[in-house]
Amino acid sequence: MYHDIPLAADERVDEVNEKLSLIQKKNALAFGTDAFLLSAFLRPAPRERAVELGCGNGIISLLAAARGRFSHITAIEIQPEMAKLTARNIALNHLTDRITVQQNDVRRLSAATLGGEVGAVFANPPYMRVDSGLASPHSAKQTARHETDGGIADFAAAAARCLKYGGLFYTVYRPDRLESLFAALHMNKLAPKRMIFVHDNPTTAPSMVLLEAKKGAGEGLMVLPPLFLHDSAGDPALSARAQEIYNNGIF
Asked: Closest by alpha carbon to 61, among 109, 94, 100?
């Protein structure tokens, strides 16, 4: 099926949601549950331009574009090799009219870089401090997981610089680092408005949190009922709610 797609030795092609074909690096961060859930957490805003910070292989932007979430998406990636991979994935899926990839550092990004303020920014940022966890021997994985090129404070600041007043910032993060996330949002006048904890099953602690914040808004956070991916420990089947999100691509 993919014999006519030129691939490097460390690449493979997978068919994912929305009938997308995704070229992935074997030694880079692969498409996972966090990326898919963040893509489904994005509110439809078909008249708004959006920006993804740290797009990796581009999967979240690809899913958002395939679902018509925004009028146009600019996908930002600091790693040259991954930015090129995103561009290839955009072309492979015939989405060049909906997504533009830009190699850039989120710490230098501004509305001027994008041709004006946007209505939405989304990011699956690195969630581990540089001095925590095991370092990966592969630079792409290391950059994606650890804050070597900016942490949540840098991503929130970039979102605030790019968003128009009332614009929305979406992110997925680790529950044990909520303090850092809320501090970054507060520092950049991004008010948390919608949040959900994701658990493997009802007996486990949450493994991730999805959050939506609004630029310039007042206090008022809605915490949604938790999402359990499975009904019980060891159950390979998705819960009914998780399956519905997987099928429809939206919360």
From this structure: 100
SS3 of the chain: helix, strand, coil, percent, to 5: 35, 30, 35
Model confidence over 35-50: pLDDT tens digits? 999 999 999 999 999 9
Residue type, 1: M
What length is written for the chain?
A: 251
First to last CA, the chain: 32
From CA 244, how far away is CA 182, in angstroms rounded? 29
Distance of alpha carbon 204 from alpha carbon 136, whole angstroms: 27
pTM higher than 0.70:
yes
Who contacts 234 (Cβ-Cβ below 8 Å, separation ≥6)?
none
Token pair of 19, please?
């009938």
Output b/e per residue, 139-175; b: 16+ Cβ within 10 A: ebbbbbbbbebbbbbbbbbbbbbbbeeebbbbbbbbe
Phi, psi angle pair for 109, to nearest 5°: -75, 145
Q: Which of 61-75, 102-116, 132-146 has the lowest mean pLDDT?
A: 132-146
